[in-house]
Amino acid sequence: MTKRALIIGVSGQDGAYLSHLLLHKGYEIHGTSRDIERADLSRLDQLGVRDSIRLHSANLIEYRSILEVLRATEPDEIYNLSAQSSVALSFEQPIETLNSIVTATLQLLEAIRLVGGKPRLYNSSSSEMYGSTEGGGRANEDMPFRPRSPYGVSKAAAHWLVESYRKSYGIYACSGILFNHESPLRPERFVTRKIVRSAVDIARGGKRRLRLGNLDVVRDWGWAPDYVDGMWRMLQQDTARDFVLATGEPFSLREFTEAAFAQLDLDWERYVDFDSQLLRPYDVQCTVGDPSRANTELRWCATTKGSQLLRKLVKAEIARCEAAERNEGQSIESLF
Questions:
Q1: C-beta separation of 261 from 208 below 8 A
Q2: Which of 72, 75, 122, 167 has its Cβ near the most Cβ atoms within 10 Å?
Q3: Is 151 a catalytic residue?
Q4: Between 261 and 323, whose confidence is greater?
Q5: Contacts of 16 (CB under 8 A, 6+ apart)
Q6: C-alpha angle 42/101/282, rounded to 5°?
Q7: Is pLDDT above 80 for 332?
Q8: Which tens digits make up the pLDDT trace of 131-142?
Q9: Calpha distance 242→296 (Å, rounded)
Q10: 128 is known as an active-site residue
Q11: 333: which residues sit within 8 A by CB, 6+ positions away?
Q12: Cα(230)–Cα(186) distance, integer angstroms
């Protein structure tokens, strides 16, 4: 029988790539956004999947809203990808961040408990829950959480709610602890897209300067389509369990910037300025993941990282600029 998936937050980067993956696996896809009539569905358009998804409005802050969509769709699998997703923005909007993550996750868990039918739930956790892994090696599923941002605190609280409901009520619910995963679908407020966009603009004779904050931070950057495959694999296991998804390779923001500009034969130091206003109040210096459990139990590994990741991001940004000049929409399905 055809499986039915409900993707909560279908219009974001991960929701779009997950839709693409599940459609190719033969799923019937239902997707939600807070107000589907006003949602930005351009990412679904870029992957050519919008017309294949049944779209619904659902606000996880409102219990009745999520209960109604669960009853209407009767999903076999639920992917909770909806929330405020910017660490930097969480310092400016901590209350909204907490509500969009913690309250929303609790409402969803309660709705699942009430409707029955035993749908399987994937919850999106974050590497930000660990805080800095500097000096402590790569973070695995057993490392304690020490979050340093309202976003990280909120994700940690939601993570423990999922575990509590799994153990207390027998719900099949698991969390993917995802480290940074990038793609051409990232909004421009994310630093990776900002760097790649600026490098391409400079190479094409446009913008001449790029302002960045702490270049010494170290992250574990992967390719978003790899990570949604990991999400799906988690829900195919006999027993619900949490997994870290990461490349396992450290990459500083300085190295990322240098590599992005090098793809375009540019010396990044000629174009980048330090801006203290871009420093976070309480930054995570280093965060790198250990995907050993996922490698072994899910047969999952990150296939695109480092210079290969940068090549894809730069290629997509160039294509986006060229399409804009022609006043055309840009499809990025060819990048898979």
A1: no
A2: 122
A3: yes
A4: 261
A5: 10, 43, 44, 46, 47, 49, 185
A6: 100
A7: no
A8: 988 776 899 999
A9: 13
A10: yes
A11: 20, 46, 47, 48
A12: 19
Identify residue 59 by its one-letter amino acid code.
N
Catalytic residue, candidates 122, 130, 151, 271: 151
SS3 content of the chain, % helix, strand, coil (to 5): 45, 15, 40
Amino acid at 34: R
Mean pLDDT of 227-247: 98
Angle at 133 between CA 179 and CA 82, to 5 degrees: 30
How many whole angstroms separate alpha carbon 76 and alpha carbon 148?
35
CB 103 within 8 A of CB 61: yes
| Parts of the chain belonging to CATH 3.40.50.720 | 4-181+222-245
Active site residue 57: no
Task: Quote the CA–CA distance of 155 and 148 in Å, as a whole number.
Answer: 11
What pTM was computed for the model?
Answer: 0.93
Are the C-beta atoms of residues 96 and 23 closer than 8 Å to each other?
no
**Rounded (10°) angle between helices 191-203 and 306-325:** 60
pLDDT in tens, 151-186: 999 999 999 999 999 999 999 999 999 999 999 999
Element (H, E) at 173: strand 173-178
Q: What is the pLDDT of residue 238?
A: 97
Kindly indicate whether the domain formed by 183-219+250-288+304-335 is annotated with CATH number 3.90.25.10: yes
Work out the mean pLDDT of the chain and round it to a whole number.
92
CA 97 to chain centroid: 15
One-letter amino acid of 264: L
Coil, helix or strand for 285?
A: coil
In order, the DSSP letters of 92-156 are: H-HHHHHIIIIIHHHHHHHHHHHH-S--EEEEEEEGGGG---TTS-SB-TTSPP---SHHHHHHH
How many whole angstroms separate alpha carbon 209 and alpha carbon 202? Answer: 8
C-alpha separations of 309 from 199, 224, 260 in Å = 15, 10, 10
Catalytic residue among 11, 19, 127, 128: 128
Compute the distance between CA of residue 94 and CA of residue 110 in angstroms, rounded to an integer: 23
Residues 33, 100, 124, 126: which is the catalytic one?
126
